């Protein structure tokens, strides 16, 4: 009887959680991550002290570690391209076309708030919390695109689908291959 009461108490307490976390990605450790500690660069004397930039409180220092830029430079790339420089010249036309009807500068904040509300309404259930399982795919299942249904919807309109198998009448096929292809399209 005590075991049943204890189990029911745990289930009720687990159901009271309003944690919008859908994926259980914690490793269970509370210790610091040893890979997040980066050594600083070695101090060096600049060739000319007159050309040093003025100090910026809270800004970056030339001895601060920059692992991304160091990796890009080691692979032969341009580390300066990592700096936020606005919209690149190659992407300007795309951004202009996408924002031709206007855009909300706070769209990321709005989307994050709406996603948090969605995750709160579709959070883990009591047994899922106790078992530590993921419910990410179940929560977003209604938003998943069914590729086969889209293929069946777009094919009659004449849209070419390179990832889909071609229709039998588009190519000369043997009768066996044609029957096999038609049975695949029906399924």
What is the oligomer described by this structure? single chain
Would you report the number of β strands?
A: 0
> In angstroms, what separates the terminal alpha carbons?
52 Å
What are the secondary-structure elements, in order, as H or E? HHHHHHHH
Query: Low-confidence parts, pLDDT < 50 over ≥5 residues?
Result: none
Q: Report mean pLDDT, rounded to a whole number.
A: 77
Described by the principal axes of the CA atoms, the overall outline is: extended
Which sheet architecture does the biggest sheet show? none
Return Rg in Å.
28 Å
Strand fraction: under 5%
- What's the tally of helices? 8
Give the helix proportion (percent range): 25-40%
**Class of secondary structure makeup:** mainly alpha
Describe what is shown at a glance.
By secondary structure, the protein is an all-alpha fold. The protein contains 8 helices and no strands.
Task: Kindly describe this structure.
Helix content is 40%, strand content 0%. It is an all-alpha fold and 187 residues long. Among the domains are: 1-13 and 108-144, no CATH class; 147-186, no CATH class. The longest helix is centred in the middle third of the chain and has 15 residues, at 107-121. It is extended, with a radius of gyration of 28 Å.
């Amino acid at each position: 009887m005590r075991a049943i009461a204890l189990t029911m108490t745990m289930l009720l307490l687990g159901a009271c959680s309003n944690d919008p976390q859908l994926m259980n990605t914690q490793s269970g450790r509370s210790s610091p991550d040893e890979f997040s500690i980066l050594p600083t660069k070695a101090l060096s004397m600049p060739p000319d002290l007159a050309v040093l930039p003025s100090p910026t409180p809270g800004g970056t220092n030339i001895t601060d570690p920059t692992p991304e830029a160091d990796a890009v430079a080691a692979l032969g790339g341009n580390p300066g391209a990592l700096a936020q420089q606005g919209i690149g010249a190659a992407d300007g036309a795309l951004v202009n076309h996408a924002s031709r009807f206007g855009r909300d500068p706070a769209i990321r904040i709005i989307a994050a708030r709406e996603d948090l509300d969605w995750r709160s309404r579709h959070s883990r259930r009591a047994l899922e919390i106790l078992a530590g399982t993921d419910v990410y795919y179940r929560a977003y299942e209604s938003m998943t695109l069914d590729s086969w249904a889209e293929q069946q919807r777009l094919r009659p309109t004449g849209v070419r689908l390179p990832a889909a198998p071609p229709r039998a009448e588009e190519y000369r096929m043997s009768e066996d291959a044609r029957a096999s292809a038609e049975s695949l399209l029906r399924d």
